[in-house]
């Protein structure tokens, strides 16, 4: 029997992949997140071979491919080197738009840290100085969002 | 490098939602069509590369769904997860490494998943993912650095969108052929500054396939062979903050290697047509800089001067580019296929007259972290 | 013209159920460093990288770009190859073609998995077709149990026969400092372990492991300068035969392995596998495979697997030792699992397998298994092909 498939109603099935994940942060990353949680401090680490100070800190330097041992405390302030004001709303976003993502070069770091800026978006441009706003100690869990956001100074 | 060539090409039309076809159906259709295009039979094909992504397909081992559809039942087959240019690259390596003919097929149905969640999953789960970054917002950061560095205005990016959607009107496969003005793009809905709706590519469903053959098999195929003269790939650092987002250094590296293989010293002179991965309007000028067609910061000037339009000396994205049809994974293969059609002289209304040497390009990862560059020629 | 290719170095992590001290990228770094140390190369000597794992075990999209800091691919070519359980052999074979193509001289193949980060079964269930298979034939164990019971009925094999395979592999693992499960077990232990799906019991199957493996491939002319005794690739064969679990004919044997071994033996000039091959590292995800699949490989005739095992032919010191590393039943970091088979086979050929070295290995065989009863095969040897 030959059937003309053009006339068949295309059905769909709904489903989702529901897999729970528990990511190991690793010792180096844990040190960073614990410092956010317990001390409201941002730490990085420095490759002594190429003298790059990374944030978040790394177990190894990607370019030199050597272990990094030297940790440094960075400033809670820095300069925005890239930004975007987000206009669309999406469940993934930690706060309701409009808000901004920014690459922030913290004082003492050689690379940028991505984070969010919630307020004064009309004053936001590359080059402005921002300061980390930490959540209350009781709300901090050892998470990148223990820094609630950065605020334009 | 031995002489190897692309001897078959096929693609679906790209559209918002292919309701009547599963991924399996699309791959089967492309496998049949690419064989027909080349004049070869499945018996002539001695190995297969499929290109798929478990996140997009909503299953583990997404390659399992399409192996038989790709004719791989009793053949040596492997799967590249990433852009189609990378899948084709592995396919080419296999021909250089002893096989006669590789069939490469890529598919994606973005309509079946949630692409923002899927691209969010390329960000590091510990330090970045919970911020909610995905492809659009990360790319917006890149556009912001690029504009700032060189004082580029949003209108310059808008012009790319106008050109590419206009080019798509001549491409029957494109998803979004459109007559646009700069004002249309500038006035379109703001998504993530500086990107507006018409600066962004759509999410399309589609599939595509090519056949790569060694020299002795090119004569068995009925098509005019398109010779692979150079190919290279390269990735830079992962964290956005580690990179200079306005300097696509991994693209520069890949391009230099591919050009050296093809003995190209002046790309502007050497190439007749370019098909590159413009997932967002700003990417076209930025990638043109990385590809060495101009100095850093001068990418937009190429369009201002009319060089990259259809009537210019270096038409870029005559197909309409990724802005006009973006089936993830497939899109890079579509760039190769457009280059093949141009070099065969079969690009119909969008044919670049006398095109002999073409460049095709694809990307992987956030903001073009990893690039793949192909140099193709109608001449051996 | 394809270039000849050899393996010149291997590295692996010390495999554990959990690696709390490192994240995935850092675990990869550990294996890569060990592989580079093994062949005394620096990352700057590496021309390209191939990496593989399974997306939904860690939920990382674009592992190739996410991993570069650990894989050493910053400003290098890298691509991701993934095919389920066979990922490790697919990565190895991709690295082989990277070099054979003439495009790269020294290529790093990496397989890894942090299985502790997710619910492995929840992830693997989704390999079945969402419309046809997922609600019935889901996950790894149901299909393997079907294969096992069909084999038992066909040849009268017993649960004890299978248990001997698990005991062998776990005994061999005692010689491997990298192995995950290093506690000896007995046939009684296996028989007394909880039934998962008849006839498969807990100690018949592989564990879930955190671990990574890295293998360095090099071109003819380069390889000899790096390693005194490189492990030459004599054959690579791949059969990913089926798409739907319902299509598999469980009475026909493991068709993909039959096909792959036929092709690989021909490439490598192997006529009598049990005689010509000195050691085999087989991807045996569960004990019953150790009976049946050695028949597909031609180590013995159909139905002779249980006797061949019982007679000790596959033990260390036997006719053809199988899984000196302890195999998959002792260590299973899925994306790395098949690459570990290749790494072990290479180590045996290079004479670097320390306490678990099989004497005078000239030819070693490694297999991969995964997907929908798929098989890959790599044959390595001391003689340049």
TrEMBL record, chain A:
<dbReference type="InterPro" id="IPR052513">
    <property type="entry name" value="Thioester_dehydratase-like"/>
</dbReference>
<dbReference type="Pfam" id="PF12172">
    <property type="entry name" value="zf-ChsH2"/>
</dbReference>
<feature type="domain" description="ChsH2 C-terminal OB-fold">
    <location>
        <begin position="72"/>
        <end position="135"/>
    </location>
</feature>
<protein>
    <submittedName>
        <fullName>Zn-ribbon domain-containing OB-fold protein</fullName>
    </submittedName>
</protein>
<dbReference type="InterPro" id="IPR012340">
    <property type="entry name" value="NA-bd_OB-fold"/>
</dbReference>
<dbReference type="InterPro" id="IPR022002">
    <property type="entry name" value="ChsH2_Znr"/>
</dbReference>
<feature type="domain" description="ChsH2 rubredoxin-like zinc ribbon">
    <location>
        <begin position="38"/>
        <end position="67"/>
    </location>
</feature>
<dbReference type="Pfam" id="PF01796">
    <property type="entry name" value="OB_ChsH2_C"/>
</dbReference>
<dbReference type="InterPro" id="IPR002878">
    <property type="entry name" value="ChsH2_C"/>
</dbReference>
Automatic annotation (TrEMBL), chain B:
<dbReference type="GO" id="GO:0003988">
    <property type="term" value="F:acetyl-CoA C-acyltransferase activity"/>
</dbReference>
<dbReference type="InterPro" id="IPR016039">
    <property type="entry name" value="Thiolase-like"/>
</dbReference>
<dbReference type="InterPro" id="IPR055140">
    <property type="entry name" value="Thiolase_C_2"/>
</dbReference>
<dbReference type="Pfam" id="PF22691">
    <property type="entry name" value="Thiolase_C_1"/>
</dbReference>
<feature type="domain" description="Thiolase C-terminal">
    <location>
        <begin position="242"/>
        <end position="377"/>
    </location>
</feature>
<dbReference type="InterPro" id="IPR002155">
    <property type="entry name" value="Thiolase"/>
</dbReference>
<protein>
    <submittedName>
        <fullName>Thiolase family protein</fullName>
    </submittedName>
</protein>
TrEMBL record, chain C:
<feature type="domain" description="Thiolase N-terminal">
    <location>
        <begin position="5"/>
        <end position="218"/>
    </location>
</feature>
<protein>
    <submittedName>
        <fullName>Thiolase family protein</fullName>
    </submittedName>
</protein>
<dbReference type="InterPro" id="IPR002155">
    <property type="entry name" value="Thiolase"/>
</dbReference>
<dbReference type="Pfam" id="PF00108">
    <property type="entry name" value="Thiolase_N"/>
</dbReference>
<dbReference type="InterPro" id="IPR055140">
    <property type="entry name" value="Thiolase_C_2"/>
</dbReference>
<dbReference type="InterPro" id="IPR020616">
    <property type="entry name" value="Thiolase_N"/>
</dbReference>
<feature type="domain" description="Thiolase C-terminal">
    <location>
        <begin position="257"/>
        <end position="379"/>
    </location>
</feature>
<dbReference type="Pfam" id="PF22691">
    <property type="entry name" value="Thiolase_C_1"/>
</dbReference>
<dbReference type="InterPro" id="IPR016039">
    <property type="entry name" value="Thiolase-like"/>
</dbReference>
<dbReference type="GO" id="GO:0003988">
    <property type="term" value="F:acetyl-CoA C-acyltransferase activity"/>
</dbReference>
<feature type="region of interest" description="Disordered">
    <location>
        <begin position="1"/>
        <end position="20"/>
    </location>
</feature>
